[in-house]
Amino acid sequence: MLKSIPSIACAASLGALLRWLLGLQLNALFPTILPGTWAANPTLSPEWRLLIITGFCGGLTTFLTFSAETMALLQTGRVSWAMAAIGVHVAGSLLATTAGLITYPLLSGR
After folding, report:
1. 58 appears as a binding residue in the annotation
2. Membrane-spanning residues where (predicted)?
3. Quick one: which of 16, 17, 48, 89 is 20 to 30 A from 23 by CA?
């Protein structure tokens, strides 16, 4: 476990920086549409999954960012967009989780 910590920390830092840069660039271009999340390839080795999914994507798609972007919309009076963003994030998360729960047994033969 201790050997994994530096990889996760580095990848999380890079993911957080990229998320911040994407937010600066994309939010300026598309102020009413929040940047989406990235998907990772589930056929990677456990080491690469740890690096990419836990580290990089974990730093890239934090709940704090979701909250901050929603608050920014609310503070600028775009309540409808904030509510839509909340709905899309929550519904998208539930749909992706459901898809994963359905897909994993099919792919793993369980």
Report:
1. yes
2. 47-67, 79-107
3. 48
List the domain range (segments joined by +) for residue 92: 4-108
Q: For residues 101 and 57, what is the distance between their CA atoms, to the nearest angstrom?
A: 19
Distance CA 24, CA 75 (A): 17
Identity of the amino acid at 39: A
- Considering its fold, how many domains does the chain have in total? 1
Q: Which two tokens stand for residue 86?
A: 């909340």
3-class DSSP state of 102: helix
Q: Is 61 annotated as a binding residue?
A: yes
Query: Which tens digit of pLDDT belongs to each residue from 46-98?
Result: 777 666 666 766 666 667 778 878 888 999 999 999 999 999 989 988 998 89
Cα–Cα separations (whole angstroms), residue 62 to 14, 33, 57, 104, 105? 13, 17, 8, 24, 27
Burial per residue of 8-44, b for 16 or more beta-carbon CB atoms within 10 angstroms, e otherwise:
beebbeebbeebeeebeeeeeeeeeebbeeeeeeeee
